[in-house]
TrEMBL record:
Subcellular location: Cytoplasm
InterPro entries: Coproporphyrinogen-III_oxidase, Elp3/MiaA/NifB-like_rSAM, HemN_C, HemW-like, rSAM, rSAM_horseshoe, rSAM_sf
GO annotations of cellular component type: cytoplasm
Taxonomic superkingdom: Bacteria
The UniProt record lists the keyword Cell cycle: no
Protein function: Probably acts as a heme chaperone, transferring heme to an unknown acceptor. Binds one molecule of heme per monomer, possibly covalently. Binds 1 [4Fe-4S] cluster. The cluster is coordinated with 3 cysteines and an exchangeable S-adenosyl-L-methionine.
Coiled-coil residues: none
Keywords, comma-separated and alphabetical: 4Fe-4S, Chaperone, Cytoplasm, Heme, Iron, Iron-sulfur, Metal-binding, Oxidoreductase, S-adenosyl-L-methionine
SMART domains: Elp3 (SM00729)
Family as reported in the entry's similarity comment: Belongs to the anaerobic coproporphyrinogen-III oxidase family. HemW subfamily.
Gene Ontology MF: a single term: metal ion binding
Organismal lineage: Bacteria, Pseudomonadati, Planctomycetota, Planctomycetia, Pirellulales
Protein's name according to its UniProt entry: Heme chaperone HemW
Domain Radical SAM core stretches: 12-243
Length: 387
């Protein structure tokens, strides 16, 4: 039996969106493990894409935002002039608050002084580099088009120009040992980074890696090796003052990714571009994933939206709990109940009981957090909370 507070609470409202995501789908080539909305070897579509993004965003009433995130794809695959145009146009379409976080995803092979200057001149103050590894064999296996030396040089240069650098690394690649992973991790932590995201390699349906695994040509590492790598990551980062704050994310004090926090805290965000997903005023929408379909629809003045659904307050509350519990500090269920207008203790009573019994979560008053063992089973806890 659940208690909904909202219908009788005239003060409850959906959160005002103060974040924006822009998806730039272009890449040099498609890496074998990637299932993002990406288009490779179609750089002739860059100019139409820029017009389409601008047209999509023109319907907004220049909302004020605190975080802007250009992801992809590879935003820095855009040539300097196009990147400059896009960043300037985003400043026209959004009112970027004075202390806003402005992030761009980048690949090491695109990084040079000229591109970094354009980013810095346009107020970009955070760069997230898709490094994935510093080991030549692993980079080759992952089909990355940069070398280890290029990655290290890009981090140094980005730190000089942008200041705030985050790095993405992949672990549990086929054939990788715990000591191989430790070497990658140490190399990253010896470089001037403030934030680290680490992801175990997954074999997603539709990727060439998935196919290769199915045919027995690629094999993931054993689960106990993957757990050992993850545990090692937590230990090594803690020793180096990069704190674990979300299942896959680690940051120095003051350098948590504010844009991702807006997602995890369900604060609402605008989004534009192929496959981009937004959450505004209680409605979740996803654009067409294919860049060519996206372009055709915008060019013919049709909506780029492929899916649109209002979410109920109950769904919203459950999602806030499921994403929130992935934060290592845990979540305050009483605060979440107030913010969602739904009594989460009642709604999620069974989920809380199951995950507590399994030893995955601990409760102190209104506060719920993952146990050290639960950190390894965060997906199970989240799925219980989603109901
Ligand atoms: S560079 Fe990144 S976005 Fe592009 S294909 Fe590779 S993993 Fe996917």
């Amino acid at each position: 039996m659940q208690t909904k507070l909202a219908p009788s609470d005239p003060n409850w409202a959906w959160p005002t969106s103060r974040s924006a995501y822009v998806h730039v789908p272009f890449c040099r080539h498609r890496c074998g493990y990637c299932n993002f909305s990406v288009i490779a070897n179609r750089d002739e579509l860059m100019k139409p894409f820029l017009s389409a993004i601008d047209q999509e965003l023109a319907s907004l009433d220049r909302p004020e935002i605190d975080t802007l995130f250009l992801g992809g794809g590879t935003p820095t695959h855009l040539p300097v002039a196009e990147l400059d145009w896009l960043l300037k146009q985003l400043a026209v379409r959004f009112d970027l608050s004075e202390h806003s976080e402005r992030s761009v995803e980048a690949n090491p092979e695109d990084i040079d002084e000229e591109k970094l200057r354009v980013l810095a001149d346009n107020g970009i103050n955070r760069i997230s580099l898709g490094v994935q590894s510093f080991t030549p064999e692993k980079l080759k296996l992952l089909q990355r088009s940069h070398s280890a030396a290029q990655a290290a040089a890009a981090i140094e240069l980005a730190a000089k120009w942008i200041g705030n650098v985050s790095v993405d690394l992949i672990f549990a690649a086929p054939g990788e040992s715990v000591s191989d992973w430790q070497a990658d991790l140490q190399t990253a932590l010896d470089l001037p980074i403030n934030h680290l995201s680490t992801y175990a390699l997954t074999f997603e349906k539709g990727t060439s890696f998935w196919n290769a695994k199915r045919l027995g040509r690629l094999e993931g590492v054993d689960e106990d090796v993957e757990v050992a790598m993850y545990t090692l990551t937590r230990q090594v980062t803690a020793q180096r003052g990069i704190h674990h704050y979300e299942i896959s994310n680690f940051a120095k004090d003051g350098f948590r990714c504010r844009h991702n926090l807006a997602y995890w805290e369900g604060r609402g965000w605008y989004a534009a571009g192929p496959g981009a997903a937004r959450f505004v005023e209680g409605r979740r929408e996803v654009n067409h994933r294919s860049t060519t379909t996206y372009l055709k629809r915008i060019e013919s003045n049709q909506s780029p939206i492929a899916e649109s659904e209002p979410i109920t307050q109950e769904q919203y509350a459950r999602e806030r709990a499921a994403f929130g519990v992935r934060m290592i500090d845990g979540i305050d269920f009483a605060k979440l109940s107030r913010e969602t207008g739904v009594d989460l203790f009642t709604l999620c009573a069974e989920a809380i009981e199951t995950s507590t019994r399994d030893g995955f979560i601990q409760r102190r008053g209104d506060h719920i957090s993952l146990t050290p063992r639960g950190i390894l089973f965060a997906d199970s806890v989240a799925s219980e909370l989603l109901g």
